[in-house]
Every structure is written in structure tokens, then in C-alpha cells.
Amino acid sequence: MRIAQVAPLAEAVPPKLYGGTERVVWWLTEALVDLGHDVTLFASGDSVSSAKLIPCAPAGLRLCGVGDHTASTLAMLDQVFRSADQFDIIHFHVDLLQYPLFRGLAGKCVTTLHGRQDLPDNLPVFGAFPEMKLVSISDNQRTPIPHANFISTVHHGMPLKLIPAAEGGEYLAFIGRISPEKRPDRAIEIAKRAGMKLKIAAKVDRVDAAYFHEVIEPLIDGTQIEFINEVGDAEKAAFLGGARALLFPIDWPEPFGLVMIEAMAAGTPVIAWRNGSTPEVVEHGRSGYLVESIEEAVAAVHAAADLPRSGVRAAFEERFTSARMAEDYLHLYRSLTSSHPQPTMPLVLAAA
User: Fold this and answer.
1) How many CB atoms lie within 10 A of CB 121?
2) Where is the Glycosyl transferase family domain (predicted)?
């Protein structure tokens, strides 16, 4: 199949440091290429891929200091639109800006929603563009918008060998983004009550800087509670693999939570608040524990020491590989191309 993958421009594909959506796009793109498909990736110019790369910005915009990505994304979508007849499927990972431009090509388009859908901001678009087909990354993600045109849920997957199984250690890990909804304060309290060291590998966005400096930074002593900033893929395997458990004490409807499967790949159990997607990802008592209180989390920290890491890794291999994710998407792509005739570009645009 001739497949276009359209990535956000916030980060490179794969990201240099923090970045979830672009990392998933990379894993999916590489898996599709491995399966023999003709894949074109629309992404930032510092991206690296086995697919044909169409650079749509010089580099990932976040690390370049660009705050508003709308203009760059619209310019990229224009590039995609002008080459749309070259593809059997156009797979968007940029949420909603493409809807007006591509509604006439809806039969060959699919959009994976990567963010939270429980806020009212984006609700009007789903009613205005009902022909645009959507994929959720967890069943829970679609709960606030049940009437949107979802055609499937596809859980994320990552390469089998990217993060190897490891023996673990005697510290707890927190990785991601410092923000109130991620609840690093809970992670710190859990570690202190459990009498264990906590290593925090996280980025601090400008919008969360005050929260970090006023709430979290005073709790970091550099000994029991250690802050090590962002980590990239090169450091992530050792960081997660050396932990007894990953703490995922979220206080929001997490759409998926990529770090959970990254920890599972290392054989590291996940201790997650029962919220959002976590019951779909964590198998309680096998790949980790689902908790609803600090007390339950502390008990889970101690229980994690006896949880077989081989079973955690097996849970990852069975459910969350990029090969499985690619096959799930290929099933969707084929269903779209078999049920809809291939659209053509509007004559007015072709003449121009």
C-alpha cells in the first residue's frame, strides 16, 4: 500500500527527548516499512526514518522555541493535500486542522486522536465533520465523545527489541512531564512512605514552571528524591530497567500512557492510578498494580519486589509491540480502501 503518515511538528520523529505522539508515529512508520509498504512520512526535517521523508519544518518546533505550531502545521497539510493522489491512505496524527481541507478525500483518510477528549474545546469539530474517520488509542479516550466517527481503537505498540528486559533495582521511577495532572507530588509521597528512593526524569513546560518551582522543587532533596530532567531513548532503557517499579499516579483521564508499556518492556512493573486508560494497559497482578490511594500504592511498591519481571515482559510482548500495532492499522487501511472508491482531486485544484 501507498501510505502517508502525517506527524505533528512539535518534535522530530523520533523525538530527541520528550515526545509521545512523534515516537508512536516513528514506531508505526518503521513497522509498516518492514512489512513492505511504500510509506511517506511528513514530519520535521531533523526526523530520521526508513520511509520517504518530506520535511515540513527545519526541525522539531518545541526545541526550536516555537510556541504556536498552527502556521507550520497548515503549511504541511497543504503539502500533503497537493500530493494526496499519490497515496492509498493518508493517516493523520495532528488531531483536527486537516478536517476542512480533506473532507472531500475522507474515504482515504483516517485520524488517530492522541490527546484527551474530555475538554469542551474540540467538541464542535466532530459534529461539523462527521465523515472524517477517527481512531482512539484507548476505549476510555472516546468516552466523552461517543457520537464521533470512531472506526476502531488501536493500542500503541513499540519495537520488540527497543528496550530489553532488565533485572531491576531498588529505586522507583517517575518519567514524563511535570504537571498537576501527572501528580509527581503523589509519586514523591509514595516513595517517602515506602522508604525508597525516587528518580524523576521529566520535562517542565513553561506553563507548568510555577507548579514545579512552588510545589515540586521544594520536595526534591537530591538524595531520596532526585530530579534528573528529561531523558532520551538512549538513557530511557537503563532508567526504567533499573527501577523496581514505575509510578504512574495520574489524576486525569490519560488517553494511553506510553511510558507504561516502555516500563513493561523492561520488565518493570507499573503502579498506576485507576484512571483513564490504565485498566486497559495494566494487567493487575501481572504487569503491575492498579491503585486508588496512597496506601494501596505503598503496598503495591512492596508487592512489586516479588512480581516476576519475566511476566511483565511477557505481557508487553503479547499486547504492545509495534508489529501488532502496524497489523491493526493495516486492517483498517484495507477496510477503507475496499469499501470506498479512491477519490480524485477536485477539478478546480487540478487545473490550478
Assistant:
1) 8
2) 166-300
Distance CA 73, CA 327 (A): 28
Its pTM stands at 0.90
Report all structural domains of the chain as residue ranges with CATH numbers, in order of start: 2-158+322-351 (3.40.50.2000), 171-317 (3.40.50.2000)
The size of the chain, in residues, is 352
pLDDT tens, position by position, 256-305: 999 999 999 999 999 999 999 999 999 999 999 999 999 999 999 999 99
b/e per residue 241-251 (b: at least 16 CB within 10 A): bbbbbbbbbbe
Cell digits of residue 319: 499486547
Given a cut of 70, whether residue 25 has pLDDT beyond it is: yes
H or E element, residue 296? helix 294-304
Residue 345 DSSP code: -
Residue 333 and residue 152: Cα distance in Å, rounded?
11
DSSP state string for 65-93: T----HHHHHHHHHHHHHTGGG-SEEEE-
pLDDT at 340 over 80: no
The pLDDT of residue 17 is above 80 = no
